[in-house]
Amino acid sequence: MDISAFQQLMDDLYGAADRDRGVPATVAWLCEEVGELAQAVRKGTVDQQLHELGDVLAWLASLANQIGLSLDDAAQRYVTSPP
Description:
The chain is an all-alpha fold. The chain is built from four helices and no strands.
């Protein structure tokens, strides 16, 4: 699945609830998931790491949808002008 299709899937599945929750709460959830990913990387199994990586990606897509940005566009800078 490409990144734009994933972002659209997250909007289709959770968009209304995400917008009701709002950006500040979504950022908080994203941060929590990043912490869970860090813990899984340190002490978890490959399956736990994959699960948490998916959660981070889903919350990142939710945030991008709420603020009207494309994850494809965000990734493009690494193609055209890597830091």
